[in-house]
Amino acid sequence: MKTFKDPKKLQKWAALRKREGAKIALVPTMGYLHEGHLSLIAKAKAMKADEIIVSVFVNPVQFCPGEDYEKYPRDEKADYEKCKAAGATAIFFPTPANMYLENHSVYINEEQLSQGLCGARRPGHFRGVCTVVAKLFNLAHPDFAVFGQKDFQQAQIIKRMVRDLNFDLDIVVAPIVREKSGLARSSRNTYLSDEEKTRALAISRSLKELKANPAQRLSSVVKKLTQAGLKVDYVEAVDVETLKPVKKLGKGVAVLVAAYCGKTRLIDNIVI
Ligand code: AMP
User: Fold this and answer.
1) For residue 116, how many other CB atoms are within 10 A of its CB?
2) Whose CA is nearest to atom 17 of ligand 1?
3) Radius of gyration of the chain (CA)
4) Where are the domains of the chain?
5) Ligand 1 pocket, residues with Cβ under 6 angstroms
6) pLDDT (tens digit per residue) in 17-59
7) What separation, in Å, do the N-terminal and C-terminal C-alpha atoms of the chain show?
8) Cα–Cα distance between 241 and 190 in angstroms, integer?
9) Which of 35, 198, 238, 246 would suit a FRET pair with 98, their CA atoms being 20 to 30 Å apart?
């Protein structure tokens, strides 16, 4: 497996591989890899990519002031080993300084899908995400990029960016990987104590119950989360394409949750 730190070197190599006819997959991550990330690599492998490039970059631009940028978990060595074992062919570890040169002044703003949900609660977050993902597309020359449904709004925004800015690649969205307990896997789960992990289960459990019985009201989910001692950031039902709120749960509707368990902000969703 190749390792790149310098964006220019990655770009040169990926362009060469592309000219040689290789099918290139990109898996963008912030590292501290878990089974959820590895499922994206597996998906790229199943889609017969010749090169699977995993980027590991805690992107400062997508964190809001006061969020966990500094304390976000990092473990390059473990990430390297996991990527290698999962069948990635290249790993990219850029630094903030070589991704954002002095006076970096160009950013990408998606102006519809990012208005609500996490976009409303984390101002500037999706501007940071779109900007770094566009840069990664330009560096890795992927034929397709794999994202997780775990970040449902993010995946929809990236698809829109690819459509609207004519990026020449496909976006593949892979299902949410969960722990046995049902908890959606996340690098941030490492912040949770055992007791918090148990309380956090209310999120996946109440979403599962809602999917089984869509006649329930969203307020029942809010109630269950609150009873478990979580602080609800939002529970919303939206149209899967437009991300606009809908009143009735049914086909083509996603229910998205963001809630604080102690200081840790967790997200999860289900598509009905
Ligand atoms: P992150 O490192 O959290 O920025 O995530 C990188 C990519 O992995 C994103 O496309 C996420 O949606 C995806 N991902 C994170 N957690 C999971 C999960 N539990 N299941 C599937 N994909 C995931």
Assistant:
1) 17
2) 36
3) 19
4) 2-174, 187-271
5) 29-30, 36-37, 39-40, 147-148, 150-151, 174, 176-177, 184-187
6) 999 999 999 999 999 999 999 999 999 999 999 999 999 999 9
7) 39
8) 32
9) 35
CATH fold of 187-271: Pantoate--beta-alanine Ligase; Chain: A,domain 2 (3.30.1300)
* Length of the chain counted residue by residue: 272
User: Which position has the token pair 């009873």?
Assistant: 227
| Level-2 CATH architecture, domain 2-174 | 3-Layer(aba) Sandwich (3.40)
Of all protein residues, the one whose alpha carbon is nearest to atom 5 of ligand 1 is 29
Token readout for 255 is 């229910």
How many angstroms is it from 73 CA to the middle of ligand 1? 14
Q: What's the rounded Cα separation, in Å, for the pair 134 and 245?
A: 28
Q: Which ligand 1 atom lies nearest to the CA of residue 150?
A: 12
pLDDT tens digits along 245-272: 999 999 999 999 999 999 999 999 999 9
* Active site (catalytic) residues: 37
